[in-house]
Specification:
307 residues; alpha/beta; Rossmann fold; Elongation Factor Tu (Ef-tu), domain 3; 2 domains
Length: 307
């Protein structure tokens, strides 16, 4: 997959089959669009082109709205789109100026001139341009004028999947990583750098790596203990992840820390990817540290059974 970091960098391809959107999560609904994109490109001997934006448009248009959480970081999105078979990915900087482009100018200057679109594939109820004034009907009218075809993924096709980024975020916020992963068609991931903690895990017999998440807007699942896989330098290990404040030891700050089973390597400053497989339990306060240790032993057995 070729990656371009602006529309101006893009080198036009023969018979470009184009789609555009944020594609947060690259979930099964998105994959229907991408699958159709690739199918058409293969049929006409062209190449698939996906135009997305960074930062997320809502962050630019509503900078005071701090509630937006993203399912995927840009690095994760790139990898998932590559795995989905996208041939050309354009990540265009989203600005207020860009948001003010009129829909007719967006069609003429970007869809036609910059991208050289032969076929445009969009999801149902897709809007674009200033104040979201552009619509499928607008594109259908412009297609014959500018020499491109338009195909809309029907509401039935997407509803059939019954998934949206909003549903996935809600599932994660409730700790339901099984549902989120089913909607995503892959395990939900957290990635970040290992930083120094207070080393309490070692005293409990379950040393943990404290992970500093790379993107502050990334959705962090509900507090609790999760069975997980940990990926380090493309090698995968079993483990259990704790998200929370650790109330038994009077913790105050929410942390993300993982205990990797049968592992003794030094991890500080290393980048880890954690795949969440299932939630074992809520975070809870135990009467003493001994009770916590006993429960951690149970958690580990449950995690191993899940994994």
């Amino acid at each position: 997959m070729k990656v371009y970091h602006s529309i101006d960098e893009f080198q036009t391809v023969k018979d470009a089959v184009v789609t555009t959107g944020t594609f947060d999560g690259v979930h099964v609904g998105h994959r229907k669009i991408i699958s159709r994109l690739n199918e058409i490109a293969d049929k006409i001997g062209g190449e698939s082109v996906l135009l997305t934006f960074h930062p997320h448009p809502r962050m630019v248009l509503f900078p005071d709205d701090h509630d937006l959480e993203l399912i995927t970081t840009m690095d994760e999105k790139i990898q998932l789109l590559k795995e989905a078979g996208v041939q050309n990915l354009i990540i265009h900087p989203f600005t207020r100026e860009f948001s003010r482009i009129k829909s007719i100018d967006f069609i003429r200057d970007i869809i036609v001139e910059k991208l050289g679109t032969s076929v445009l594939v969009i999801g149902y109820d897709h809007h674009f341009g200033r104040n979201r004034e552009g619509s499928f009907e607008h594109l259908k009218e412009s297609g014959p004028l500018y020499g491109f075809q338009v195909e809309e993924i029907s509401v039935h096709d997407v509803d059939d999947v019954a998934v949206s980024s909003t549903k996935i975020r809600k599932a994660l916020q409730e700790g339901d990583v099984l549902t989120a992963s089913r909607y995503l068609s892959h395990s939900y991931q957290l990635s970040g750098t290992v930083i120094h903690g207070d080393k309490l895990g070692r005293e409990l017999g379950y040393p943990t790596a404290n992970i500093q998440i790379e993107d502050r807007n990334k959705v962090i699942p509900a507090n609790g203990v999760y069975a997980c896989y940990v990926i380090l330098n493309e090698e995968k290990f079993k483990g259990m992840l704790n998200i929370g404040t650790r109330p038994t030891v009077k913790g105050q700050v929410r942390r993300i820390e993982v205990n990797i089973f049968d592992f003794e390597q030094e991890l500080y400053d290393k980048r880890l990817v954690v795949e969440l497989k299932d939630r074992i339990r809520d975070e809870r306060k135990f009467e003493n540290v001994e009770q916590l240790k006993q429960r951690l032993a149970i958690d580990k057995n449950l995690a191993l059974r899940i994994l």
